[in-house]
Please model this.
Amino acid sequence: MDKDSADRNTGADRAAGPNRATGSGSERQELERLPVKACLRVSIVDPKDLPSVWPEVSELLGPACDHSFGQETIQTLRASLTGGNEGLFIVEDDDIIGAVTYEVVTYNTGLRVLAINYAGGVAMDTQMPSVIDMFNKLKLAYMCDRVRIMGRKGWVRYMKQFGFTDTHYSVEME
Model:
């Protein structure tokens, strides 16, 4: 993965999205030096490096896309990641064991939210502290006010232990 790719855009581009606004080189280096368990590595995947990790990532994120009620397929997610519309980070031990997509949403009020769109993985209890550290690093790097995860109900109970609270409920009708 290209560790200098985050240098390409700063300043006004911060509102644009994850791969357009990963901050300065020093911020990128901070993101790369997350305090994680000794055997885990957390890395942002540059869009140009997506093909090398896609076979493993697609298996991890496929079930989340399958449960998106038609909002995303694994093919449309790949296109979004390749185009830089969403960011991706992975958690590795010897293999990729977790994958998370994100984007920055800026509201008319100026509120900036790091939106976690899709996540998948194995050994969640082992990797979740590293994932939460990455959420916090990305929140700071993108100058976001909060982190938001939209997911199934079971995530609400699980994520409360990390300081998340349920703020909205979503209902849909076809």
About this structure: The beta strands are 41-44, 87-92, 96-106, 112-121, 146-149.
